[in-house]
Amino acid sequence: MSKANWYVVHTYSGYENKVKANIEKTIENRHLEDQILEVRVPMEEVVELRGGIKKQVQRKLFPGYVLLNMIMNDDTWYVVRNTRGVTGFVGPGSKPVPLTEAEMMPLGIKNDDIQIDFAEGDAVVVTGGAWKDTTGVITAINMAKQTVTINVELFGRETPVEISFAEVKKM
Fold first, then answer.
1. What is the pLDDT of residue 12?
2. Measured at the alpha carbon of residue 43, what is the angle toward residues 93 and 154, in degrees to the nearest 5?
């Protein structure tokens, strides 16, 4: 099996999130979860001054571009290239060129293998984010996205929530 690399896709400006959603839906429909591992629209947090009021906002780091962590083959190339809003891969001609380690460093993308001390079925407590101090049981672990899916009680029923490894601690 080939190694997954990060590729850059050029999109119509303003369509980045729509392209991300379309690719994720296609991955789910065609069961390509093991080939297209992650789709990202890099964002940065900036402070804007509007009407004399400082406001914290999310801004696209690279407008018109979407990053994909995928194993390049004919199927994945076809799926991504024929997604509505995608104009093409970044690279010479029609040949996509993967990002190098040096190019990925400023983006905050790490390919480090993280060792985790929990498994499916373990009870965990959320240590940060919107679900801070919530407890739940791990139902799925996604090593590629570095997230766990836990069931939390919301409005009297069990609801699956995806949380980053960094925000979860074993009870």
1. 92
2. 125
Q: What is the DSSP string of the chain?
A: -PPPEEEEEEE-TT-HHHHHHHHHHHHHHHT-TTTEEEEE--EEEEEEEETTEEEEEEEESSTTEEEEEE--SHHHHHHHHTSTTEEEESSSTT---PPPHHHHGGGT---PPPP-S--TT-EEEE-SSTTTT-EEEEEEEETTTTEEEEEEEETTEEEEEEEEGGGEEE-
Q: Which domains does the chain have, with CATH numbers?
A: 5-107 (3.30.70.940), 123-170 (2.30.30.30)
Q: How confident is the model at residue 20 (pLDDT cuts 50, 70, 90)?
A: very high
pTM to 2 decimals?
A: 0.61
CB neighbours of residue 112 within 10 Å: 6
Residue pair 162/116 in contact by the 8 Å Cβ criterion = no
Q: Which two tokens stand for residue 136?
A: 């739940």
What are the tens digits of pLDDT across the range 78-106? 999 999 999 999 888 778 888 887 777 77
Comparing C-alpha atoms, which of 162, 160, 140, 143 is closest to residue 151? 160
Q: Give mean pLDDT, residues 51-77.
A: 89
126 pLDDT exceeds 90? no
- Bridge partners of 168, per DSSP, are 126
